[in-house]
């Protein structure tokens, strides 16, 4: 067939080469029983540090950033491969992915020169851990109803209130915080974003034990926390615009399908697949994994062309999160009751219980499945909205 | 990655769509079902004007893409003509073989068998082609163009794997078209139909159904594009085509069931296109194998061949 075709679904030689390189690097750096970066255990965090430092050294940490901010001038498919391989290997950059994926990029877009100078080098060298302070006890899916208050006293902002579900709050040095500084006609008005040092007096982090394990969920209490005006990101009262930018950068969600494909590949030839009913379910999951990957690739391509709408973004997400739960349940079921207890000597399949526990949150975190369905339906029925 | 269909193929699809819409769209299927002797008169002149039956799905990229999209456009009106059957015959065999049926095990009936001259039935399990002799028409609501058949001796010279792959690919495009029409009907109804003083599309339950059918349809579209590309590159294995078939059937079940639910009682009427599409699609969804049997075929193919992916599954049998 001719060399140059209209349709070519390969990711490209640069992306393929990066995949090979990343796998070699991770094989070298990660312990065999690596399954989580969500742990305060110093042994775990030293692995994260090792991976992050090495990625920074090899110019792979800020792969997706513009070159002027230390990015590597890569194409979108190299970035897709990086997302896939990191997620397939249980995100060994730990909490750093937040800084890289959206904190840094949003600071580039709306930050002051001082904020850029303070934060971007720390993120791009893998030294700063961030957490996202959005959700509150009364503000979940309805984020704009958040109440944590910020009042100006003698040139300083005083923060009072509570955040919840804050991942990595116990490890973070910085919080990307959404607070209420006023009220307007709409509940989206009067929100302001603050970049808050987590060691500020008056901040208290209380871990929440959960099915997923440590560090995933925390409460963060703000009690007369005083910060200077330099902590405001963007305009006072226009924080919703900043949040929309965050959401835009998070539109191409995490590549859950990549870990699912890795788990499915590890199950190939498993003795339980001798049972035809099991093999049927396994085969269906393979189809769903391929479909989820292709729908995610479509979103990446459309995003690059400036044509991504809520419809395709949320369809990709719906496919991924449902796949995650399907594969997790299947893997645990095929592995039998002994797999309810982790077995560090059994490689990936020794940790299907971890995969299963984590997958419970797939349809809740970063916008619930119900909200994703709403977005798809609204976009289909009432017309598409392009990402702003 | 480049994932946009060639412009020429897209333009051709539009002309095919216009041609069938001008002839009445889904009414063609209704008319053919009312009098099956009219299938030729209803569909063939338009197909010939479009030069569609002469196109080669194994041809150059533009031509091959045009075939896929044209079959999708024909599927969009469930055209009462065995187009995928005809187009799955390789160019060098078209003089001797009029169409390809797929079977899995013994069959007593096949769709449009009375219309296709010198058709063969390729058995998925045994990989052999046999001559089809049509018997009496045996129409039924879910199998409007069925005829009794007798399968004769093996026909040599048919590359069973090749034609099987092409027929499965064409079927997926056909079904994609039909489901896109069904999805459009549901989405439009969700926007227009008012109950309790507002459009039903404002209700969460209806939005849920619209989201699920959109996801199913888009997933099938992407997988069909991917499978076509694999076939063109000579990289498609039987597991890839069977995966497409499984997704096709699951997507159809999701789109049709949710589509009916969104439409309410109106969608069940013969006057409504959704019912005609639903009934006329069942043949391709069940031949050569329905959901469970197709999944079984896929499962065996995966064990024997593996399955490609970011983390490829290795074969183990
Ligand atoms: C693992 C994990 C990590 C997280 N990390 C962070 C973090 O770092 N920072 C942060 O700020 N937040 C974080 N979150 C919080 C997350 O963003 C919220 O859980 C999410 O937005 C949903 O809010 P909620 O849990 O309060 O559920 P609710 O919004 O109370 O929803 C409860 C149920 O009602 C449904 N529902 C709500 N509104 C509607 C509607 N309009 N129509 C139909 N159904 C509706 C929901 O879909 C859900 O099923 C995390 C959550 C998880 C699970």
Automatic annotation (TrEMBL), chain A:
Which Gene3D superfamilies does the record cross-reference, listed alphabetically? Acyl-CoA dehydrogenase/oxidase, N-terminal domain, Butyryl-CoA Dehydrogenase, subunit A, domain 2, Butyryl-CoA Dehydrogenase, subunit A, domain 3
Tell me the GO molecular function terms. flavin adenine dinucleotide binding; oxidoreductase activity, acting on the CH-CH group of donors
Keywords of the record: FAD, Flavoprotein, Oxidoreductase
Gene Ontology CC annotations of this record:
plasma membrane
- Give the top-rank taxon of the lineage listed in the UniProt record for this protein: Bacteria
* Residue span, Acyl-CoA dehydrogenase/oxidase N-terminal domain: 49-126
Its cofactor is:
FAD
Per the database record, which ranges form the Acyl-CoA oxidase/dehydrogenase middle domain? 131-225
Q: Pfam families given for it?
A: Acyl-CoA_dh_1, Acyl-CoA_dh_M, Acyl-CoA_dh_N
The Acyl-CoA dehydrogenase/oxidase C-terminal domain extends over: 237-379
| Protein family | Belongs to the acyl-CoA dehydrogenase family.
Stated name of the protein? Acyl-CoA dehydrogenase
Species name: Nonomuraea wenchangensis
Automatic annotation (TrEMBL), chain B:
The reply on keyword Oxidoreductase is: yes
Q: Locate the coiled-coil region(s) and give their ranges.
A: none
* The organism's place on the tree of life at top rank: Bacteria
User: What is any Pfam family matched here?
Assistant: Acyl-CoA_dh_1
Q: Name one GO molecular function term.
A: acyl-CoA dehydrogenase activity
Q: Where is the Acyl-CoA dehydrogenase/oxidase C-terminal domain?
A: 175-275
Q: Which UniProt keywords apply?
A: FAD, Flavoprotein, Oxidoreductase
InterPro entries from the UniProt entry: AcylCo_DH-like_C, AcylCo_DH/oxidase_C
PANTHER family from the xrefs?
ACYL-COA DEHYDROGENASE, ACYL-COA DEHYDROGENASE FADE28
- Name of this chain's protein: Acyl-CoA dehydrogenase, C-terminal domain
The organism named in the record is Nonomuraea wenchangensis
């Amino acid at each position: 067939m001719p060399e140059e075709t209209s349709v070519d679904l390969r990711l490209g030689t640069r992306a393929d080469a990066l995949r090979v390189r990343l796998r070699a690097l991770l094989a070298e750096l990660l312990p065999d029983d690596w399954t989580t970066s969500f742990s305060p255990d110093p042994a775990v965090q030293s692995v994260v540090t090792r991976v992050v430092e090495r990625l920074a050294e090899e110019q792979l940490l800020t792969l997706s950033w513009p070159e002027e901010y230390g990015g590597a001038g890569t194409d979108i498919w190299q970035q897709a491969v990086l997302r896939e391989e990191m997620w397939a290997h249980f995100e060994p950059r730990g909490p750093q992915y937040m800084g890289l994926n959206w904190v840094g990029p949003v600071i580039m877009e709306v930050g002051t020169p001082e904020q850029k100078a303070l934060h971007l080098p720390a993120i791009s060298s893998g030294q700063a851990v961030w957490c996202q302070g959005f959700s509150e006890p009364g503000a979940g899916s309805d984020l704009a109803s958040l109440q944590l208050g910020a009042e100006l006293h003698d040139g300083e902002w005083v923060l009072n209130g509570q955040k919840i579900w804050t991942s990595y709050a116990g490890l973070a040095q910085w919080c990307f915080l959404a607070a209420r500084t006023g009220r307007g006609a709409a509940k989206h008005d009067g929100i302001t974003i603050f970049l808050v040092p987590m060691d500020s007096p008056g901040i208290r982090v209380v871990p929440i034990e959960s099915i997923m394990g440590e560090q995933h969920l925390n409460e963060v209490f703000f009690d007369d926390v005083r910060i200077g005006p330099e902590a405001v990101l963007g305009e006072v009262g226009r924080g919703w615009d900043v949040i929309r930018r965050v959401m835009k950068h998070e539109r191409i969600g995490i590549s859950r399908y990549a870990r699912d494909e890795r788990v499915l590949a590890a199950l190939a030839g498993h003795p339980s697949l001798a049972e035809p009913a099991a093999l049927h379910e396994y085969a269906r999951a393979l189809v769903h994994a391929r479909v989820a990957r292709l729908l995610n690739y479509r979103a990446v391509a459309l995003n690059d062309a400036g044509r991504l709408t809520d419809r395709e973004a949320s369809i990709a997400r719906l496919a991924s999160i449902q796949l995650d739960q399907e594969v997790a349940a299947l893997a645990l079921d095929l592995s039998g009751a002994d797999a309810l207890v982790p077995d560090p000597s059994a490689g990936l399949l020794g940790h299907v219980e971890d995969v299963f526990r984590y997958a419970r949150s797939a349809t809740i975190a970063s916008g619930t499945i119900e909200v994703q369905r709403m977005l798809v339906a609204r976009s289909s029925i009432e017309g598409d909205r392009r990402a702003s | 990655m480049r994932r946009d269909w060639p412009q020429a193929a897209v333009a051709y699809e539009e002309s095919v769509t216009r041609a069938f819409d001008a002839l009445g769209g889904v009414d063609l299927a209704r008319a053919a079902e009312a009098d099956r002797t009219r299938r030729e008169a209803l569909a063939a002149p338009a197909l010939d004007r479009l030069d569609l039956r002469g196109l080669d799905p194994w041809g150059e990229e533009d031509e091959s893409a045009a075939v896929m999209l044209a079959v999708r456009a024909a599927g969009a009106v469930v055209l009462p003509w065995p187009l995928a059957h005809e187009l799955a015959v390789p160019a060098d065999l078209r003089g001797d073989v009029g169409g390809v049926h797929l079977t899995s095990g013994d069959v007593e009936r096949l769709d449009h068998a009375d219309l296709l001259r010198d058709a063969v039935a390729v058995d998925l399990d045994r990989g052999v082609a046999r001559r089809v002799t049509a018997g009496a028409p045996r129409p039924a609501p879910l199998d409007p163009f069925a005829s009794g058949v007798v399968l004769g001796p093996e026909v040599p010279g048919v590359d069973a794997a090749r034609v099987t792959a092409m027929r499965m690919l064409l079927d997926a495009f056909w079904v994609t078209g039909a489901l896109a029409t069904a999805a459009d009907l549901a989405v439009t109804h969700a926007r227009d139909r008012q109950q309790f003083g507002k459009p039903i599309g404002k209700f969460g339950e209806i939005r849920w159904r619209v989201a699920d059918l959109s996801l199913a349809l888009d997933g099938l579209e992407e997988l069909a594009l991917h499978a076509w590309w694999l076939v063109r590159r000579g990289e498609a294995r039987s597991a890839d085509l069977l995966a497409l078939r499984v997704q096709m059937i699951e997507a159809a079940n999701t789109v049709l069931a949710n589509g009916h639910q969104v439409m309410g009682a109106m969608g069940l009427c013969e006057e409504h296109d959704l019912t005609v599409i639903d009934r006329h699609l069942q043949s391709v969804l069940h031949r050569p194998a329905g959901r469970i049997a197709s999944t079984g075929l896929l499962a065996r193919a995966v064990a024997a061949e593996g399955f490609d992916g970011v983390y490829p599954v290795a074969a183990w049998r």
